[in-house]
Amino acid sequence: MNSLTRLYRSYRVGSAALRLWSMYKVPDLARRAVGREPRAGEALDPVNERASEILLGLAFDLRGVIIKMCQAIATRSDRFPPSFIERLKQCHDAVPARSFDLIKARVEAELGKPLSEAFAEFSEEPIASASLAQVHAARLHDGTEVAVKVQYPDIEEIVTTDLQNMRRACWLYEKIDSQPLELMPLLEELATHLSYELDFEREANSADRVRELFADNPRVKVPGIHRELSSKRVLTMEMVRGIKITEREQIEAAGLHPKQVLQDLMHIFVHMIMADGFFQADPHPGNLMVTEDGQIIVLDFGLSKELPEGFGLGLFELMFSMMTLNEAAMIRAFRELGFETKTGDSTTFIAIARRMMRRSDTGRFEGEFTEEMTDELFDAIREDPVVSVPSDFVLVGRVFALLSGIAHSLGYRANILQAMGAGAPA
Fold it and tell me: Can 392 be counted among the known catalytic residues?
């Protein structure tokens, strides 16, 4: 990256930050000057819409880590308004591919040999492209089909530059604003996740760990890694093909029952989260497939997380207490999971749980964390004095909300408690 490009990125991030701060703060300062209350609630909806448009435009212009930032915002319903979440979801699908010449040079530099020596065939058109890397189909000299994930050549420098720019913007914002949002912890969380996703050796190790976890379960498929053709920035994997997990008609046409497919899928993620404490944290439909013989294929272990000891037990206690309406157990579970309040008032947790359970027909938890329930949780958190929401809980909540959406596309419900009691699928 040359100095002019670096300067342009700094300018774009700085000017966007200033514009956003002005949109939210300047009108409220003017209102206070004449004795009026600051805007709140629905009065901020038009501002939130414009702000989300600015962020989306910034992401499409700069790509790289800015897209990752917007993707991260789109998962944090506990901190950001619904308009941000809805609009910035587009960042998951709007990443154009890089040129083949750049990709070819990257692979050859990483593997230390010409592309033709490493692979018998290597498709110039990617089969997928994302914010940090893109994937190409290839064939080894022995005829084996593989998928090669290649990190963009300049992405590490882009990440470093953009994180520095965002840290400066957050530091300045916290200095000049008397009541700033706590953005720096979110930025550091993003930096941590980016460090995971930029390390393909870690991703390979994560895939191996999950594959070993399900070694005795023939209904789970994690693609194998070709270590001799992989590095920290290039990942060569077994090529796998299947039906997208949400394609109910294709699943039924293959002679599979969607209910069994869902049961197997739920068992995989419940076992990772509740039993093993290590999970793939991005189960969107593009990362999940089912083969014609019923194997569930799990892809992309770039964002895999180790959960704190006891997290699974705390999550189970929260679900069981919400099902049995045991308020004392609810409070204990929230605290064990790492939730904190500014005042230490435990009634906040009861109010949050009640709002979540309102989304159920029976007024109690019935085994499914729907997207509506998690949205209600995060709405309550934004309104009540919760000062700390554990990022692990946010990721796990997002996982179960995504699984709930997949389940509804298949015509069923994603019941976590049933998946826990089912054991390994038959």
Answer: no
Q: Are 206 and 370 in contact (CB under 8 A)?
A: no
- The β-bridge relationship of strands 133-139 and 220-221 is unpaired
Q: How many Cα atoms occupy the beta-carbon half-sphere of 86 within 13 Å?
A: 8
The tens digit of pLDDT for each residue in 148-177 reads 999 998 888 888 888 888 888 888 877 776
Provide the residue ranges of all domains of the chain, joining segments of one domain with +. Answer: 242-426
How many other C-beta atoms lie within 10 A of the C-beta of residue 387?
Answer: 12
Task: Find the DSSP H helices in 180-326.
Answer: 183-197, 200-213, 248-253, 258-270, 311-324
The pLDDT of residue 348 is above 50: yes
Tell me, what amino acid is at 192? T
Torsion of CA 65, 69, 75, 78, to 10 degrees: 160
Name the token pair of 51: 């702000």
**Bridging pattern class, strands 243-244 and 288-290:** antiparallel
The tokens of 239 are what? 């090529």
Radius of gyration of the chain from its Cα atoms, rounded to whole angstroms? 23
Nearest one of 397, 368, 388 to 79, comparing CA atoms:
388
Catalytic residue among 78, 264, 282, 375: 282
**331 is written with which tokens?**
């409070």
